[in-house]
């Protein structure tokens, strides 16, 4: 196993302990020697992991006190590794609220700026979604790809980059939602309605359809989170 993978394992384990409360705010993180012994790695590997966690704001290296868990307000809770490990319902609420603000504007702008190539890509992904017989992971990937294609159709690279960052953070809960047959049906229906508006160049209709879609997503996520 490479040094990089070994340091990643240490990072994931410490983040998991922080998320579970085993290592609370102000708690002392195991020493370099302890981590070296536990993971059977060199100090270089441990230091790489500690530097990464420090940069993410989860720990703080203090002279005389060792390494401690940093105050919560310093944590980068949008870090993809943190999100993948810790299913914090409040984080998903924040992500969903942000999507509700941004996605309707993306749909409206896509209706104005989408090219025929954009529309073709959206239709192909919608067809894949409707006919997909694979598991939740694939369904969620197609859903993310469809929204990413819609974002690209805005022709706004900054907005597209913001959208992709949110999508990467929400993939875990989208997989959970994709386990609900009704959620898949709802998504396909609203994607098709949004597509119609984008094809016709109707920004107001595209925005309204996306708002309805986001309302349905919120309801479906509420059910999905209860089963996680």
TrEMBL record:
Entry's Gene Ontology molecular function annotations: DNA binding; DNA-binding transcription factor activity
Keywords linked to the UniProt accession: DNA-binding, Transcription, Transcription regulation
Family annotation (PROSITE patterns): HTH_GNTR
Domain HTH gntR-type: 4-72
Pfam name, any one: GntR
InterPro entries, alphabetized: GntR_C (IPR011711), TF_FadR/GntR_C (IPR008920), Tscrpt_reg_HTH_GntR (IPR000524), WH-like_DNA-bd_sf (IPR036388), WH_DNA-bd_sf (IPR036390)
Protein name (database record): HTH gntR-type domain-containing protein
Source organism: freshwater metagenome
């Amino acid at each position: 196993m490479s040094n990089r993978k070994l340091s990643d394992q240490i990072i994931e384990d410490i983040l998991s302990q922080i998320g579970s409360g085993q290592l609370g705010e102000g708690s002392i993180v195991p020493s370099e020697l302890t981590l070296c012994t536990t993971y059977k790695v060199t100090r270089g590997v441990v230091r790489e992991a500690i530097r990464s966690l420090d940069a993410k704001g989860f720990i703080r290296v203090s002279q005389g006190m060792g390494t401690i868990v940093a105050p919560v307000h310093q944590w980068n809770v949008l870090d993809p590794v943190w999100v993948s490990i810790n299913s914090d319902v409040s984080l998903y609420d924040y992500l969903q609220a942000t999507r509700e603000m941004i996605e309707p504007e993306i749909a409206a702008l896509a209706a104005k700026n989408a090219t025929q190539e954009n529309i073709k890509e959206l239709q192909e992904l919608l067809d894949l979604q409707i006919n997909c017989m694979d598991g939740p992971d694939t369904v969620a990937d197609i859903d993310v790809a469809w929204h990413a294609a819609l974002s690209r159709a805005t022709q706004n690279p900054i907005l597209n980059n913001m959208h992709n960052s949110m999508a990467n953070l929400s993939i875990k809960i989208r997989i959970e939602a994709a386990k609900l047959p009704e959620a898949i049906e709802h998504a396909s229906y609203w994607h098709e309605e949004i597509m119609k508006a984008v094809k016709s160049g109707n920004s107001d209709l595209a925005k309204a359809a996306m708002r309805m879609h986001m309302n349905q997503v919120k309801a479906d996520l509420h059910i999905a989170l209860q089963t996680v």
